[in-house]
Design goal:
This protein is mostly helical. The chain is built from 21 helices and two strands. A two-stranded antiparallel sheet has the order 1-2. The radius of gyration is 22 Å and the shape is globular.
Length: 503
Amino acid sequence: MADFFLQALGQVSSPSVLLLILAGVLFGIIGGSIPGFTVTMAILVVFPFTFAMDPVSGVSLMVGVFVGGYSGGIVSGVMLGIPGTPSSITTVYDGYPMAQNGEPGRALGIGVAASFLGTLISVAVLVFFGPLIASFSMNFRPWEITALILFALTLVAGLSNGALLKGLLAAALGLLITTVGYDRNSNLRFDFGIPAFSSGFEILPVMIGIFAFSQLLGNLEKLRDDPGSGARRVDTNVAIPYRTILKDMAGQKLNTLRSSLIGSLVGALPGTGGTVANFISYDQAKKFSRHPERFGTGTPDGIVASEASNSAVAGGAFVPTLALGIPGDLPMAIMMGVLILHGITPGPLMFEQNPVLVGAIYASLLIGAVVMVLCQLLLVRWFAKISLIPQQILVPVVLMLCAIGAYALNNNLFDIWVLFGFGLLGYLLWKAEVPLTPLILGVVLGNNLERQLFRALELDDSWMTFLTRPLSALFLALAVASIIFSLYQDRKIRMNQQQARDA
């Protein structure tokens, strides 16, 4: 392991790759700093620039964006009281009050330090547990992989906040989208007489359309309803009190470790991500605190819990992505797309066939964390100003970049139409409150699910084999349990809402 890690570190330490990591971290922080832009949006915008790069350079750039994006949300959260990304929601609870109390530099400094430590701990989790999971999953055959993908999709759908049926339908729609074009036996499906459909839909324009385009349309709608939301003015004169921050962090050792481990664990669960980790770690920090009444008033405990957990998601989310080929969250689904684009299939064999690339991911996470701290502390005033960019300017620019990225994939005008078509679909689904994450993961995992299912049936045409093989039966049982538990949660939510209305 040491040999390939040193070899990977040598490649990542080259000036060109270091510049790419720096550029990625900067863009990620900027993207995270702008309310409504999100980490996912930043990754989608950068994705097309990796087409002409070698795998190490492309992945290093994306890792930089990933690390920077998760830490960037703290800027607008502290300065404006608006989370730059969904994974920074609980940062606002204590970061904004601390800033309002005249200590914005302290709040930002604590958040950056916690993000750095959270990333380091998550990398340790990735290094130690990634190869173990990959080694264990070497025993997986097509039946187990099929059942695992189904479990991942039901788990994601079950986290759809009281909308289980919509989540399952979204996942099914994502799978259906991947069936357009020729199947593995060269049979043409769902082309509707349109020649361009015969090749199917590229993942990139579909993902950009469903998520980025639809979200930008949603931002425009919110801007129409609240014209003043695009023009906020705050004092961006920020100074970082380094000694105070060191003293604060010295008393947060247990909170930092606990929150980072929660972030790593939650990140390793398919379809969860920083937002879920954010709330869980904040809740646990409050329960373990000697002064829970201080939460929400500007306590360092809340900022540390929030930022350490959402940054720790980075390393945790790589575990299932690299070891099993199952994206840990939406940004990881895009990262998986980068690897597939370069002819690399994530999964158990990746640790044997591409050990240098795995080592490059480890090294990029570590270097990205260091670059993130330096950039945040040195350029925090400028990032605070960037968070004030009006949506009227931001939305058209990002839309243009999305269209250029979709076209650059194959120099094909049809991909732009795919982007706009799925953008409108995503917007309509968003209006109908249908979760988009299960849909996108269905698109990413659909081809692999079909391939593994057909391979399993070719080896043994009996469906009972899925139930007679222990691991396959376990994953299917977990999928059913996930749906039942989600139904129970949905019923509980509806009962609580009914009781609130009756009261």
